[in-house]
Structure prediction request, 142 residues.
Amino acid sequence: MKKNVIILICLLGLFLPRMTAQNVTLNFRNTPLKEVLREIQNQTDYRFVYNDDAIGASNPISISVTAQPLRTVLTDLFAQNNIAYEFRDRQIVLKPQSPEESETIENYATTPQQITGRVICSATGETLPFVTVRIKGTVQEQ
Prediction:
């Protein structure tokens, strides 16, 4: 019984989403969008998925914000550049906002890759047997 409780606590610790809002501080003048996105990635747990040419990643951007919520920063940043964004778990998918340039989000997805590893209980340090980790909203191809 005690072992089951420990495993349950470990699993909850692994899979409960973070409830804290992430604030971002940026100060860039005429900097390529790609560098601004890299800094946002450094300050948050999110990663951007995009096509450089489709969103103009080389275009210069000027932005200055201090301790602003991530969603507010993204809305301000992308509104001035006609870029739409969508949160998918810990990824932010970017695409052109105008309909003629719009492509499906699937075109921005990376090639499927197999990832292997071990899931370790944070309380005991033991490897958890028979654990499968899956990204929410994805389907495993056979």
The longest strand covers residues 23-32. DSSP finds four helices and five strands in the chain.
